[in-house]
Known about the structure:
The chain is α+β, with helices and mostly antiparallel strands. It folds into two domains: 2-124, Ribosomal Protein S5, domain 2; 127-187, Alpha-Beta Plaits (2-Layer Sandwich), CATH 3.30.70.240. The chain contains four helices and eleven strands, in the order βββαββαβαββαβββ. It has helices at 29-42, 72-81, 101-119, 140-147; strands spanning 2-4, 8-14, 17-25, 48-55, 58-62, 87-94, 122-124, 127-135, 152-157, 161-168, 179-187. A hairpin with a 3-residue loop joins strand 9 (152-157) and strand 10 (161-168). The chain starts with a strand and ends with a strand. 29% of the residues are buried.
Amino acid sequence: xxxxxxxxxxxxxxxxxxxxxxxxxxxxxxxxxxxxxxxxxxxxxxxxxxxxxxxxxxxxxxxxxxxxxxxxxxxxxxxxxxxxxxxxxxxxxxxxxxxxxxxxxxxxxxxxxxxxxxxxxxxxxxxxxxxxxxxxxxxxxxxxxxxxxxxxxxxxxxxxxxxxxxxxxxxxxxxxxxxxxxxxxxxx
Length: 188
């Protein structure tokens, strides 16, 4: 699986219609909703706001008033074909006065996503584990070093130290001497 490294905007014009493609790195449905709201405010005079997103096993697409299956589904097909995850693709369309027909719309939306993915910096995702470690306070520095500061989600100081973090799946053996709870499988 792959993900984009940073958000991206690309524009293409097809038969006087303007297609503004926005790619976003997203991890939650709340982020998807926020980006959709922001786009509709920023481009309030646009004709359509079609989208597709993939967040692990959650997948959804919308034609937003375009003929059924001519926008969201082709967008999703391109994202799936490129093995993308944690991605939201929104295409803002300004109608240019020339009807494209169903086939033309499918080609326009597909090519807009494809073009954006070609421009995007993409990285391969690595299988990872979201873990919780309960340990003594004297192990804190060692754990921070093993996990890496950027992979620590939170620390709790109670009767014991509790650290939540993300590790690559193959690194689990480094933590074999500690009591580890695996919260979920994820990707880095």
